[in-house]
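### Sample
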Amino acid sequence: MTFIIILIVLLLVVLGAVGWAVSAYNGFVKSRNVIQESWRQIDVELNRRYELIPNLVETVRGYAAHERNTLEQITALRNQARALAGQSGGQPSQERAAIESQLSQAVSGLLVTVEAYPDLKSNTNFLQLQRELTDTEDRIAASRRYYNANVRDYNTRVESVPSNLIANFAKFEKATYFELNDPIARQAPGVSFGEISQRPAQAQQAPQIAQQSVDNPVQAPQPQVQPQQQPVDRPPFGN
């Protein structure tokens, strides 16, 4: 009887372990598919940007000939990014992420520079390209955040115990982030907490003083009245 009980317990443990392993494996497969789908969304927007940039360059060149170096840089980065996309089969890589980040900075800088050209700003074709590029950049940023969040969750499971046992057995490797490599965007703004803590106090003192002056106007000094000396109470019984 005892042997049968032990056998049943062992069988339940084995079934539980197998069930957990199958569930963990399916979880890895699901996470990998979600990462691939989220990357395809980024890739679509990147290709859309590849198509918009030549039109933008040609439009700006007709009005801002002095920006030739900037236009040539954007064209070179665009061609380099597209070549890396073809070499990697459209998959993310750190090298491609770095080039795409430089391309985003160059395009953003160009859109800021054209503010000095009023004729270009009034061009209908340029305004449409500017709007489409801005929307594309916003979608790239949103898709990148979603993709990196999925990669973080997946990589955490790959490295965590005991799910890493299934990952090593089934050869699930860590996914690649698509990060923004912009030191200016990454730099946190400097904040002095000492100044901030003093500002509210200084700001509150002025209205409080003004309110006190209104509520308590200055009055003429009143003559001081000396209190009358009260007789000292004697104890009811003498010694």
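Residues 2-61 form the longest helix (60 residues). This sample (LemA protein) is used throughout the tutorial notebook.
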